[in-house]
Structure formats: C-alpha cells, structure tokens
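Students often ask why we bother predicting the structure of a whole assembly rather than each chain alone. The short answer is interfaces. A chain on its own may look different once its partners are present, and contacts between molecules only exist in the joint model. In this exercise we take two input lines together and write out one structure for the complete complex. Read the inputs first and try to guess which parts will touch.
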Amino acid sequence: MTAELRRILLVEDNADIRTIVKAALEMVGGFEVHACESGTEALAAVTGFAPQLILLDVMMPDLDGPGVLARLRERPECAAIPVVFLTAKATKDEVQRLRALGAADVLTKPFDPMTLHEKVKASWEAAAG
Amino acid sequence: MTAEAFKRQLEALSADYRRELPAQLAALDALWRGLAGGVEAPARLADLQRELHTLAGTARTFGVAGVSEAARAAETLLAPYCRRGKLPVAAKRAELERLLAALLRAGAPAPAP
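Now the answer. The structure tokens for the assembled complex follow.
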C-alpha cells in the first residue's frame, strides 16, 4: 500500500449523491475520483483505474455493494483494495454485517460534504494500519 | 480547486435539489396513495421503501434535514411490512400518513418573501 491516498473509485447509483461525493473528494480532499453508477460499471473500471480505495454504496439495483465486494475479492489484482461502504442504513447490526463481509470501514449517509474527505482519509489510514 | 469553490458548487447543487424536491415528494405521495387505495402490490411497496431510503440518506446532505428525518421514520415504520409484502395495519397506516404529510411540509418550497 502506498503512503498517500490519491485515487478513489466511487460507486453510487444515486446521481445527486454521486455528484456531491465526487466534487467533495476532488475539490476539498484533492483526490482523483472515478465515479461509477453501478456495480457492473465499477467491476469493469477497477483494473484500468487502479484505485487505492473503493467507496461503495450498499443498496443498488442489480448488483449491490456486498455483491461487488464479493466479486472484487475473487480477483487477485483487486483483492487487497480497501472497500469502504457508504450506507444510509447504519444500524449496529448492519455495520457488523458489512465489516464481516470484509469492509475496511462503513460511513454513514447523510454526511457532511465538507468533512467527508477527512473520514475517507481516516478509513484509508486505518486500513493501511 | 478549493473548499470555497466547493461550497459554491454545493450551494448550487443544493438549490437544484430543493427545486426538484417537491415534484419528487409528490410522486412519492402518489405512489403511497395508489398503494393505499388499490390492490396490494409488494413490488410497489418496495419502490416506496427504496424512495424513502434514498431521501433519508440524501436530503440532509443538501440542507433539508426535516425531509431526511421524516423519510427515515417512514422507512423504519414501513420496513417490516415491506419484508412481508403487506400494507401496514390501519393504525400504522395513519402514522405513515402523518409522516408522509410531514415529509411534504418539510420539502415544500419556502414562501416567497
């Protein structure tokens, strides 16, 4: 794992949230963000973009966040990329379930767009150990 | 790119969101009216649940906290019924109606000065 977080793959089906997360992470956090609107699109983009962290919505039509995570873990080149879930259902049980699936962290929606980059960076640093 | 530039973009995005919100809430209300007045349809109940979930996770980020709170409460109320594919019982329907009314009020455009 490199020392500094630069590239983030964002997977979020809601266009409003996708726009604001991408803008917040790029403009405030200074990250390079590739945004995908579906799990299928993310699985196609991940090898070419080579993200250092994947920010993944949980509830998406067709292929949901846990489904994306499972497929990433089957691919050796993606297996070690930390995945942080972004969820509007952050109950204790749900957070435990997502962590048991292999999530590096779970962030909650709604969020403060001005401080989101700090939370993502903290998740990255925790995953990097 | 700076935090100040992002704040300006956030204000513009929030204004767009609030402008589109009444139509979104009206569609959600119509979805509920259709369910409440017609044949039970589990798929449409799931649609309503998903719309509420999205609003709960989105609206506060765009500065409409009241919509997030009412949507979260309605989503929570509806969840067990959605899992069973059944409409809420009468007492819970009344509660859901109150929450949806609160949702519509919270998302209504501010009166002109």
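Check your guess against this: The radius of gyration of chain B is 16 Å.
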